[in-house]
Automatic annotation (TrEMBL):
It is found in: Mitochondrion outer membrane. One of its GO terms (biological process) is intracellular protein transport. Residues 1-41 are annotated as: Disordered. This is Mitochondrial import receptor subunit tom22. Keywords: Membrane, Mitochondrion, Mitochondrion outer membrane, Protein transport, Receptor, Translocation, Transmembrane, Transmembrane helix, Transport. It comes from Aspergillus mulundensis. It comes from the Eukaryota. Residues 28-41 have a biased composition (Acidic residues). GO terms for cellular component: mitochondrial outer membrane. Its main location: mitochondrion. The lineage of its organism: Eukaryota, Fungi, Dikarya, Ascomycota, Pezizomycotina.
C-alpha cells in the first residue's frame, strides 16, 4: 500500500498566505512574484540553429498566432483553390485529348486528299504547258491527243 505525504514548498512554508475578505487566498497583490523562479539560470546561448531553419518550420511555429477561425478559412480557401485547379487541369487534359484525336481522325485524311488534289492540278498544268510548247514548235500539227481521237483507215 502507498502512503502519500504532503511536501510543502519552502517559499510557502515560510510565508503563509492570509485569507482575504471573500475567503480567497491571496499571498499578495503582485501575483508575478509567486511564479518567478529567481534561482534558475537563463541561458543566453542556445543550441538551436536559426540559420538551418526551413520556411515550413518557421510558418508552422507561427500557427498559434493565427486564430483558429482564420486558419480554418485559409485552409478552406486553399482546399477550394487546389480542387478547382485539379478539376481544371483534368478538364483541360480531356478536352485536349478530344481535340487531338479529332484532328488526327478528320484532319489527316483531309490533308492527304487535299495534297492529292493539288498534285492532279499541278499535273494538268504541266500537261497544258507541254501542249502549248508543242503548238508553238509545230503550229497546225495535230497533237498527240488529236491523233489518238482520229480513226485510222
Amino acid at each position: 500500500m502507498v502512503k502519500l505525504t504532503e511536501v510543502e514548498d519552502e517559499h510557502f512554508a515560510q510565508e503563509k498566505p492570509q485569507p482575504s475578505k471573500h475567503n480567497v487566498l491571496l499571498a499578495s497583490d503582485d501575483e508575478d512574484d509567486d511564479f518567478t523562479d529567481t534561482e534558475s539560470e537563463i541561458s543566453v546561448e542556445s543550441d538551436y540553429d536559426v540559420e538551418g531553419e526551413t520556411l515550413y518550420e518557421r510558418l508552422s511555429a507561427l500557427k498559434d498566432i493565427v486564430p483558429p477561425s482564420a486558419r480554418k478559412q485559409a485552409t478552406n480557401t486553399v482546399d477550394y483553390v487546389t480542387s478547382f485547379a485539379k478539376s481544371s487541369i483534368a478538364f483541360s487534359g480531356k478536352a485536349l485529348w478530344i481535340l487531338s484525336t479529332s484532328a488526327f481522325l478528320l484532319g489527316v485524311p483531309w490533308a492527304l486528299a487535299y495534297a492529292e488534289e493539288e498534285q492532279y492540278i499541278q499535273m494538268e498544268r504541266e500537261q497544258g504547258m507541254i501542249k502549248g510548247a508543242n503548238e508553238m514548235l509545230a503550229p497546225g500539227a495535230p497533237s498527240t491527243e488529236e491523233q489518238k481521237a482520229q480513226p485510222t483507215l
